Sequence to fold (126 residues):
Amino acid sequence: MNRRSFFQASLFAIGAATVLPSILQAEERRRGGSAAGAAATLVDPKDAAAKAVNYVHLNTEIKDKALRTDRNGVKFEAQHCKSCAFYDASKETTVAGKKAGGCQMPFAAGKLVAAEGWCTTWAKKA
Fold:
């Protein structure tokens, strides 16, 4: 195998590995399989990925002053998942007595975030 064919094969494998999981997941949802039928669950703030972005179910739970900052002209008190650009209100439901919706961030993949929640990836809706 020469260098050119090695790089071609590598790029093909990387591309396939990147695209294939999302195609399979979309097909599973289309057929109404386990991904669509699973009970909705909230992201656990104790999960390592959630901890990495300081996710909490209520933004009042953030005690670190360095994190409680205004962003894009929005006071910290008004920063909630429901007012974030990554929040998906189309998936909104009630889970464990809390209003919750989808989130586009990787830490919330397949789970829901509390509408009153907050994390360091919060971004103002356009």
